[in-house]
Amino acid sequence: MTRSAAVTGATGFLGSRLCDRLAAEGWDVRALSRPTSDRSGIDHQGDLEWVVGDVFDRQALGDLVDGADVVFHLAGIGLWSADPATVEQVNREGTRNVLEVCRDSDVGRVVFTSTAGTLRATDGDLADETDVAEPIGAYQRSKATAERLVDAYAEADGDAVTVHPTSIFGPGDEGFTMQLLAMGLEPTMPATLPGGASIVGVDDVVAGLLAAADHGTCGEHYLLGGENLTYDEAAARIADYVGGTAAPIQVPAAAIRAAGPVAEGVSAVTGQQVFPFTRGMADLATKRLFYTSRKAHEELGYEYQPLEAHVPDALEWYRSQ
Ligand SMILES: NC(=O)c1ccc[n+]([C@@H]2O[C@H](COP(=O)([O-])OP(=O)(O)OC[C@H]3O[C@@H](n4cnc5c(N)ncnc54)[C@H](OP(=O)(O)O)[C@@H]3O)[C@@H](O)[C@H]2O)c1
After folding, report:
1. In 176-205, which positions are buried (b, 16+ CB within 10 angstroms) versus exposed (e)?
2. Separation of CA 244 and ligand 1 centre (Å)
3. Model confidence over 197-228: pLDDT tens digits?
4. pTM of the full structure
5. For residues 139 and 91, what is the distance between their CA atoms, to the nearest angstrom?
6. Which fold is adopted by the domain 4-173+197-228+290-311?
C-alpha cells in the first residue's frame, strides 16, 4: 500500500534529501514551500505535490498534513539567517501550529526534527537523550520549547517522536559542510577551529528519520549522530581523502570566546544581533560536542557511516559552487 508523507522544510538541505528518498521509495509526498523558497534543483522529484505557505498559515498546513500517514516537521531557522525573535517564532510557534493542525486533522505519526544542541553532557563525556541541557541562545531555546510541545502532544492522544540530529554533513549545505570542506581542502584557508562535533552524513539522518517514523516509540527522543571528531581530525581526514593538506593553524579558543562579549556589546548598543554569538554560544563553539546514538541504534536499527563515505558527494557539490 502506498504511504503518504507531509514534509515541512522540504526546500532545505535535509528536507530536500528526505523528499528525494521518499519519492524514490514510492511514497506520496506533499511538501511545504514558502512563496519565496528556491525550488530550483529539487523539482525533479516526480510526483511530489507542493503546498505553498509557511508555518504560520494554518490553511496551508491543513492542506499539507490532512490524510498523511507521517508528518515530517523539519522547517526551522537558525541564527545565521534570522534575528532571535524570528528564530523563536518559526521554531516554537511554527511547531505549535503544525501540532495544532495535526491534532485537528487526520494524520498518523509526527516526526519532529529538533537538534542535538538541546542535549549536552555535563562531564565531557558523550551526551545521550537524558542529558537535557540549559539552552544557550534563541535557537536552542526555541527548539527545547518545541520539544516540550511535541512531548505534550504525544502525552495527550497524539502520536509523535522527536529526533535530534548532530552536525549534518552533505551536499547543498553552505554552512557547516562548506566550512569543514574548506578547512580540509583549501591551502589558503588560514586556520581550523578548536573543539569538535559529532558529524553525520545527510543520508544517514534521512534513514534515521524514516526509522523513527517506522520503529520509534511514541513520545521518545532519538539522537541521530555520526562520528565524534575534533575539527582538526575531520579536516585532516578530508585532506587525506583527497590527498591534500589540512589548514595548518588552529584559531585559539580564547579568540573565539572573545567574540562573544564583543558581539554582546555591539548588540546591546545597536539593539540588533550583529552576528549570532553570545558569550555562551562562543564558549560552546570551542567545546567537543560529542554524542552517542546508541538508543537509536538499538531501538531503530540506526547506523551511521564514517566521514569518508560522505565526502565524494559533498566534494562534487563543493567543487560545483
Ligand atoms: N543542518 C544541520 O546540521 C542540523 C542539525 C540539527 C538539526 N537541524 C534541524 O533540521 C531541520 C532542517 O535543517 P536544514 O539544515 O535542512 O535547514 P535549511 O537548509 O535552512 O532548511 C530550513 C527549511 O525550513 C524552511 N523554513 C524556514 N522558515 C520557514 C517558515 N517560516 N515557514 C515554513 N518553512 C520555513 C526553509 O524554507 P526556505 O527554503 O523558504 O528558506 C527550509 O525549507 C531544521 O529544523 C534544523 O533546525 C539541522
Report:
1. ebebbbbbbbeeebeebbbbbbbbbbbbbb
2. 32
3. 999 999 999 999 999 999 999 999 999 999 99
4. 0.93
5. 8
6. Rossmann fold (3.40.50)
Alpha helices in the chain (DSSP H): 13-24, 58-65, 84-88, 94-103, 137-155, 176-185, 202-215, 231-242, 253-270, 279-285, 294-300, 307-320
pLDDT confidence tier of residue 243, bands split at 50, 70 and 90: confident
Domain ranges across the chain:
4-173+197-228+290-311
Residue 302 or 124, more confident? 302
| Protein residue with its CA nearest to atom 47 in ligand 1 | 76
Q: How far is the CA of 187 from the centre of ligand 1 (A)?
A: 31
Spell out which residues line ligand 1, taking CB within 6 angstroms: 8-15, 32, 34, 36-37, 54-55, 74-77, 90, 94, 113, 115, 165, 167-168, 176
Residues listed for the chain: 321
Eight-state DSSP code of residue 92:
I
CA 192/CA 89 separation, integer angstroms = 33
Alpha carbon nearest to ligand 1 atom 1, residue: 168
Ligand 1: which residue has its CA nearest to atom 35?
A: 75
